[in-house]
Design a protein that fits this description.
The protein is an alpha+beta fold and about 400 residues long. The chain is built from 14 helices and 13 strands. It is about 35% helix and about 20% strand. The radius of gyration is 23 Å and the shape is globular.
């Protein structure tokens, strides 16, 4: 191992939700499995298919009805409450047995900096990767895939190569050459809209990105120019941020002068609280994926419900409809409310936040909201408002 670079692992659990279900219910193995709902839940979407279901074309976020047409013989089950977070914690405990420098970025993936612990494993990064992978498989009965590189982006791209249960090393010092022949869909966060936009200019492979100048991307593509060019050069941060319990969530809440069940008022207040949270998230370059709505009733009893979306965001409109649904469920008992709160959790920060939903239409919304944030900071928060909060 050279002394002038780090060794970063990106560990990505394989079909995590489905694998956890198979681990506790071995009878589900060896047959297509779709987690997301039973055959009676036709309006649901696929949360996670196992690899046998994926081989038949089933994909995450696909309508469940479509999955039933593709694999009618599959097992269709609802998610098991608490199972995935429990397994995620167990996986993380295994990571910490091998290195103290661990950065979880979602329930089923994490970065590990193993640079300073390799001497304990004959300075052999593949040996260490196999030790981690095998312990997860032997103790938890689930598998993972590992990308090994000198920086985080290359490690993340590498972890997708040999799924499931594989290891991929991005050659040290040859990152640019390794990535150049890969198609642009391998860039983390580059969705279909991004790919179509790049293909219009003949950018099919990652190496093609370097055909154009920085000014071209600033004018034609937008705010993620540096990220895009750095990927093409095989460059990225190598800083793995150690997990900090104090930065797991961000929340705001408000206690009312009098108890209320006025839905219109509560909905406006909910949006206002989400605005304040999202403004803070944007200011620290952070995005979240899970929202929790909390209410305290007139009798001081507390209730809260959560929803985890498909993407990370710090744009309030991406979460508002789901938050209203959660609120409606807690209003169904007709009890008046004295406190309303919102919490964002499962956070990603910095470069990891940038990778999520790269270049999609949310960029325009995020740019607008950042401009509004500046106006509010310069004058006051109420200087700019959306229509649904005018009553506040």
């Amino acid at each position: 191992m050279a002394d002038n670079h780090k060794i970063i692992f990106h560990i990505d659990m394989d079909a995590f939700f489905a694998s956890c279900e198979e681990a506790i219910k071995p009878e589900l193995k060896n047959k297509p499995l779709v987690v997301g709902g039973t055959k009676e839940d036709r309006r649901s979407i696929v949360a996670c298919p196992n690899y046998l279901a994926r081989a038949k074309g089933v994909r995450t976020a696909m309508p469940l009805a479509r999955a039933m047409l593709l694999v009618p013989e599959a097992n269709f089950i609802r998610s098991t409450r608490g199972l995935y977070s429990d397994y995620s914690k167990k996986v993380r405990e295994i990571f910490y047995k091998y290195t103290p420098v661990v950065q979880p970025v979602s329930v089923d993936e994490a970065y590990l900096d193993v640079t300073q612990v390799l001497y304990l494993h004959n300075n052999d990064h593949i040996l260490l990767a196999n030790k981690i992978k095998n312990e997860i498989k032997d103790t938890l009965k689930i598998t993972c895939s590992i990308g090994i590189a000198t920086n985080k982006i290359c490690a993340k791209i590498g972890s997708k190569f040999n799924k499931p249960d594989g290891i991929t090393v991005v050659p040290f010092g040859q990152e640019k050459e390794f990535l150049s022949e890969l198609t642009i869909d391998k860039i983390p966060g580059a969705g279909k809209a991004t790919q179509e936009r790049l293909k219009r200019y003949g950018i099919i492979k990652i190496g093609d990105i370097l055909k154009y100048s920085k000014s071209f991307y600033e004018n034609e593509i937008g705010i993620h120019t540096s990220f895009l060019l750095n990927v093409a050069e095989g460059k990225s941060s190598d800083i793995v941020k150690e997990f900090n319990e104090d930065r797991k969530s961000l929340s705001k809440e408000n206690t009312f002068w009098e108890d209320t069940d006025d839905r219109e008022f509560l909905e406006s207040e909910l949006y206002y609280l989400m605005e304040r949270c999202c403004q803070k998230l944007r200011s620290i370059n952070t995005k979240g994926r899970t929202i929790t709505v909390k209410v305290k009733y007139y009798d001081f009893k507390v209730n809260q419900r959560s929803f985890t979306g498909k993407k990370y965001s710090n744009v309030e409109t991406d979460f508002f409809e789901d938050a209203v649904e959660l609120l409606d469920k807690m209003l169904s008992n007709k009890k008046k409310i004295r406190l309303l709160g919102i919490k964002f959790s499962e956070l990603v920060t910095g470069e990891d936040a940038m990778q999520e939903n790269l270049f999609d239409d949310a960029d325009k919304k995020e740019n607008l909201l950042k401009k509004m944030d500046k106006i509010r900071k310069k004058y006051n928060y109420d200087a700019v408002k959306f229509g649904r909060t005018f009553g506040l």
